[in-house]
Amino acid sequence: MKNLVQLFSTLGLISLLLIACNTDDVTSETTDRPPNVVVIFMDDMGFGDLSSFGHPTIETPNLDRLAREGQKWTNFYTASSVCSPSRGALLTGRYPVRIGLGPAKGGKRVFFPNSTGGLPAEEITIAEMLKEKGYKTGIVGKWHLGHLPQHLPTTQGFDSYYGIPYSNDMDAVEWSLAAFFRAPDINNWNVPLMQDTTIIERPTDQTTITKRYTEKAVEFITENKDHPFFLYFPHSMIHTPLFASEKFLNTSPRGFYGDVMSEVDWSVGQVIKVLEDLNLDKNTLVVFTSDNGPWLMMQEYGGSAGLLTNGKGTTWEGGMRVPGIFYMPETVQPGTITDLGSTLDLLPTIANLTGAQIPDDRPMDGFNLMPVLTQKEKSARDHFIYYRMQDIYAVRKGDYKAHFITETCYTRDNQRTVLEKPLLYNLNHDPSEKYDKAEAEPAILEELVDLAEKYKTEVVAAESELDKVE
Ligand code: MG
After folding, report:
1. Annotated active-site positions, please?
2. Ligand 1 centroid distance, CA of 421 (Å)
3. Which of 70, 159, 372, 400 has a beta carbon 3.0–4.6 Å from 327's, enabling a disulfide?
4. Domain CATH number, residue 376
5. Are residues 416 and 359 in the same domain?
6. Does residue 345 contact residue 364 with C-beta atoms inside 8 Å?
7. The pLDDT value given to residue 5
8. Distance between CA atoms of 166 and 147, rounded to whole angstroms?
9. Of 325, 354, 381, which residue sits at a domain end?
10. Residue 31: what pLDDT?
11. Domain extent at residue 218
């Protein structure tokens, strides 16, 4: 009897040891490893283009769920109103003007197929920061920070790259509004598709691009389920020319733009699903935002800034305020956040979440948002600078924004105006920037003028990489 008890307890111990050693099934559930990070970045999607941000006919159920179960930020800013500088700022936590992406007057504002510049090698990206912590790093989507070999994502901390190197409307055979407004023809845009450093397709079949990006993103997450990973997922959509898979065509009451948004929303759902299937969802921060506001001259083929004024290319709210969604079940406290946040804050926030080291040898422009995400504390960001190229067009502090230069961008003919007197708006009362408070609030205006002066004095513009061309 005593021997039998001993035998059973030995067997019990062995099975316990077997369970403990069988790590295959449980590794992805462990939470003692640093969290994963997924950043999904839209192209030219406006503040008003999600159903959860007020669009009446676009349906984005997967994104709406993230906004509801995570945090929905309604005063969230991208650091530039156009592609390349916006992307560089997100990845480095620094205003574009500091990192060679703020050209002088008359310079180019983004990289083109004849550009030879790129995000400078000495800049430290989120991917490089996390690699120091042993993360696996991948980018799926549009890079737009230099397409020559010395500037590709694999030189900036990414282990792998699948996507297009610049905007999906470049290398155009015919560049006209008519070409964007016709039934899209992939052959009109001779954009390459790259795997790491090799061109694997040209022109890219953009009709299946969202679907293929999604498959690659799911593959990256699955392959790296047992390591901490960082996935940067900048969609090529919903920049014109618009393309969607067959399955999504003619499905949305919003028309073609709504069809494309539906496919992007499906894609977000697929990313969340694989995280859930692998039990990684609670250990993964998912961020969703956009690189700049809607491209208004594309008319109904472009997006909507909702109640905000103007769009892409401008420092009106519609150009730079974008939807911000943060999702991480049990870590991010659900709610709507009206405090200020920016894509500039992702690097320090991710550093704080993962225990990575923020670069300490250079000025940084981001703030750690973790106390807001986890405890709904007040945001550490109390101001934001609206640069256009090297100029400060506007600044925001707290509720108020002062404009010093304005530019409208409804057509190809921008109207740039250096204001004799600054305009002042209370953005929380007046998000559409309609009612000038400059006369009524001189003390607040003075404070904002001082803030602009401080940045003008302290921020040194780096030589523009954007003006380097063949
Ligand atoms: Mg863009």
Report:
1. 83, 144
2. 30
3. 70
4. 3.40.720.10
5. no
6. no
7. 43
8. 7
9. 381
10. 54
11. 34-381
The Å distance, Cα 167 to ligand 1 centre, comes to 8
Residue with tokens 């002042």: 424
369 and 415 assigned to the same domain: no
Instruction: Determine the Cα–Cα distance for residues 407 and 424; give it in Å rounded to an integer.
Output: 16
* Domain co-membership, 180 together with 224: yes
- Give the DSSP per-residue string, 288-348: EEESS---GGGGGGS---TTS---TTSSSHHHHB--EEEE-TTTSPPEEE-S-EEGGGHHH
Whether residue 266 sits in one domain with residue 231 = yes
**Are 330 and 408 within one domain?**
no
Q: Contact 47/321 with Cβ under 8 angstroms?
A: yes
Check if the beta carbon of residue 298 is closer than 8 Å to that of residue 180.
yes
Q: What are phi and psi for residue 284, nearest 5 degrees?
A: -135, 125
Contact 235, 266 (CB under 8 A): no
Of 336, 361, 381, the last residue of a domain is 381
Residues 154 and 278 placed together within one structural domain of the fold: yes
- Ligand 1 center to 302 CA (angstroms): 11
- Span from the CA of 43 to the centroid of ligand 1 (angstroms): 4
pLDDT, position 175: 86
The pLDDT score that the predictor gives to residue 2 is 45
Structural domains counted in the chain: 2
The answer as to whether 11 is a domain residue is: no
| SS3 assignment, position 266 | helix
Angle (deg, nearest 10), helices 83-92 and 346-354? 30
Residues of the chain above pLDDT 90, percent? 90
Segment-wise mean pLDDT, segments of 10 residues, the chain, 470 residues = 46 41 42 90 98 98 98 98 98 98 92 97 98 98 98 98 97 92 90 98 98 98 98 98 97 98 98 98 98 97 98 97 98 98 98 98 98 98 97 98 93 86 98 98 98 97 95
**Cα of 292 from ligand 1 centre, angstroms:** 5
Q: How far does residue 1's CA lie from ligand 1's centre (Å)?
A: 76
